[in-house]
Design brief:
Order of helices and strands: HHHHHHHHEHHHE
Number of helices: 11
Helix content: over 70%
Distance between the termini: 31 Å
Largest sheet: 2 strands, antiparallel
Structural class: mainly alpha
Mean pLDDT: 80
Number of domains: 2
Length: about 270
């Protein structure tokens, strides 16, 4: 086991010592290698969406376990959960009126569990809620997302209100995890279950982002025309990439902590 840890430790030590530009280059190169690997291994690229949803479900299960067994919501951002419920509710509405399918059921199930988490934090476990740490003003993301959805939205044949709602939930999903990252930035110490949950979100976002990028490459960009014209298709892809990069830094420190055998994740200054 020590023989395995030594090369990993050497790589992580080398990476930490590199300047920011080199770290970005290595991160982008690693992402490209991972995308190439998925493209070769996963022949039905739609399965990447299934993987993303499965990992997300695992993350929610970890969160539910923390709330029910540990009897604490310390380290969990109520505002992130509220933003998640908001974009899921809007997306569920869009699913009903625009494209009723299996994802409608999955969104309904996710919204239900998210609403339960919000209830537990607000009422059952209120005494353990870190209100002073969860200090991100959500209107900083809700208002810009709303304005952006009015300016850039799908150019499909659906009613304009539905198209704006669709755009709003896409943009809001991309930044819904920001309050959770702020809580972890304020505390600097992340207990295991919260870290597992956020890492699951990061992996889920990567699979979802990989699906879109691979689809664009395989169809030489034609898949984007299915979503409409103008800036909207590019904004969908950009939103997926933004979600992935927002969580990338945290995921790096999470993996480093796990490989180092640490149960509690300690974040250095400047992370997230």
């Amino acid at each position: 086991m020590r023989g395995t840890k030594r090369p990993i430790h050497a790589v992580t030590t080398w990476f930490r010592r590199q300047p920011p530009k080199m770290k970005v280059f290595v991160a982008v190169l690693s992402g490209m290698v991972a995308l190439l690997f998925l493209r070769m291994v996963v022949h039905d690229h739609d399965k990447l969406f299934v993987f993303a949803e499965a990992v997300h479900a695992i993350g929610i299960a970890v969160l539910i376990y923390k709330l029910t067994q540990e009897k604490t919501c310390a380290g969990i951002s109520l505002k992130s959960q509220e933003l998640t419920a908001m974009f899921l509710a809007v997306r569920l509405y869009c699913s009903f009126v625009m494209e009723y399918d299996i994802h409608t059921f999955l969104d309904f199930a996710t919204l239900g569990t998210t609403a339960w988490v919000i209830y537990m934090i607000r009422f059952k476990l209120k005494a353990t809620y870190m209100d002073e740490k969860d200090n991100f003003a959500i209107y900083y993301v809700v208002i810009p997302c709303a304005l952006l959805s009015f300016a850039i939205h799908p150019s499909t044949s659906h009613h304009i209100f539905n198209r704006i709602c669709w755009a709003f939930c896409v943009y809001l999903e991309a930044v819904s995890v920001v309050p959770q990252l702020r809580v972890m930035q304020n505390t600097k110490i992340v207990e295991p279950f919260t870290a597992h949950y956020v890492f699951a979100l990061g992996v889920s976002r990567f699979f979802s982002c990989a699906h879109w990028i691979i689809q664009v490459l395989d169809t030489r960009g034609r898949v984007l025309t299915v979503l409409g014209y103008g800036l909207w298709p590019s904004m969908v892809l950009l939103s997926e990439i933004v979600q992935t990069f927002i969580l990338a830094d945290f995921c790096y420190y999470y993996v480093q902590s796990v490989l180092g055998g640490q149960l509690v994740l300690r974040l250095p200054s400047g992370v997230v």
